[in-house]
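Notes from the 1:1 (GR / supervisor)

We went over the backlog. Supervisor wanted to see one worked example end to end before approving the batch request, so GR pasted a single chain during the call. The sequence is below; no edits were made to it. Supervisor asked that the structure be written out right there so they could see what the output format looks like.
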Amino acid sequence: MTVIVRQVGPGDETIVVELIQELAQTTLALAASASVGETSPITEGYVREYLAYPGCGILLAEEDGHAVGLLSYSIRPNLYHAANSALIEELVVRESARNRGVGSALMTELLHRLPSMGCAEVSVSTLPDNEGAKRFYRSHGLVDGAVFLEKHLISTRRSI
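Structure output shown during the call:
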């Protein structure tokens, strides 16, 4: 099957929510300390808000008209590079579509688009023990360049 990658637009909110919820379940399975029943607070309204925010975008992968994966990203100015920097926020491929090149199609498309967006670099984070994800990103030219630290400041539960 051929994978088609396109930009998410109006009317795609439901599928984005479904794919992010699938990612939450996958992340749950990988994180031994996570609680059972992990979900994302994402809503269709939040997807619309995200897409309206300057620099935010989502690529959708489809096979035979069915959504099989997505990659969300944000672009921001970077002082050090005096150019834009891209951050891959989420990459999810439906379990039924894994190991068929869907993730690679999404990454290839993003990497193709970034220079025209003025990006000097792209970065991503993953769980430290997710060796498969690290192999995948390295296979697309990303290298271990920094340690990504985070602190959750507010509850992610919100309604829009």
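Supervisor's comment: The chain has one domain: 3-139.
Batch request approved.
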